[in-house]
Amino acid sequence: MIRNEGPLSFYKGVLPPLMAETPKRATKFFTFEQYKSLLTRNRDATAMTYIIAGTGSGITEGIMITPFERVKISLQSLRSHIRD
């Protein structure tokens, strides 16, 4: 691979997954901080605060991202059937 296409060939195709992962991570971090600030309100955060904020951010991310993942998987499946 390095001889034919050069060292950058190892990174070929990395941009689309990276672009898809960025909004997922941004959603998770943003919602975590929002939940944490709602739960603490002038108090110190406890372990339970982090557990609840993490659970809430994971659920929120799942609700927001799942429809897009479903479309992506459907398109990948369709392309797979077309090739066969």
From TrEMBL:
It is a multi-pass membrane protein. It is found in: Mitochondrion inner membrane. Coiled coil: none annotated. The keyword Metal-binding does not apply. One of its GO terms (cellular component) is mitochondrial inner membrane. SUPFAM superfamilies: Mitochondrial carrier (SSF103506). Belongs to the mitochondrial carrier (TC 2.A.29) family. InterPro entries: MCP_dom_sf, MCP_transmembrane, Mito_2-oxodicarb_carrier. Transports dicarboxylates across the inner membranes of mitochondria by a counter-exchange mechanism. Can transport 2-oxoadipate (2-oxohexanedioate), 2-oxoglutarate, adipate (hexanedioate), glutarate, and to a lesser extent, pimelate (heptanedioate), 2-oxopimelate (2-oxoheptanedioate), 2-aminoadipate (2-aminohexanedioate), oxaloacetate, and citrate. PANTHER family: MITOCHONDRIAL 2-OXODICARBOXYLATE CARRIER. Solcar repeats lie at residues 1-38. This is Mitochondrial 2-oxodicarboxylate carrier. Keywords: Membrane, Mitochondrion, Mitochondrion inner membrane, Repeat, Transmembrane, Transmembrane helix, Transport. The keyword Cytoplasm does not apply. It catalyses: heptanedioate(in) + 2-oxoglutarate(out) = heptanedioate(out) + 2-oxoglutarate(in); glutarate(in) + 2-oxoglutarate(out) = glutarate(out) + 2-oxoglutarate(in); 2-oxoadipate(in) + 2-oxoglutarate(out) = 2-oxoadipate(out) + 2-oxoglutarate(in); citrate(in) + 2-oxoglutarate(out) = citrate(out) + 2-oxoglutarate(in). It comes from the Eukaryota.
